[in-house]
Amino acid sequence: MSQSQKVERPHILWWVSIVGGLTILGLQGFNSAFYAWWVAHLNALPAQGTMAWIFLSLVPIHVGEAIYCWRLSNRLGTPDASAQWALQTFVIGFPSTWLLMKRARGPSAVTSTTASP
Description:
Number of strands: 0
Helix content: over 70%
Structural class: mainly alpha
Number of helices: 5
Number of domains: 1
Shape: elongated
């Protein structure tokens, strides 16, 4: 598999913070004992039902990002890596999407903030 076919992995801190944060959010939303402990010992939170809805709202967002990355990887000519890009993006979201979009722009892409005359 060529270098361009490989899936780039975001830094480990992205994985720890996002997977850890989603896990905590899920526990706050769906585990009454954890929610009660958190509120009693750490800080106040919105209602537990609100925490559950916040967690559930992340599912379609991550699914949409994963589909986008699947399609973008196919358009870039790396269909063998598409499933890996999609799965990684479903789990951690934007850090993965950002890496794939950076690859799509290529090394010669230059952004300019000045208008041409």
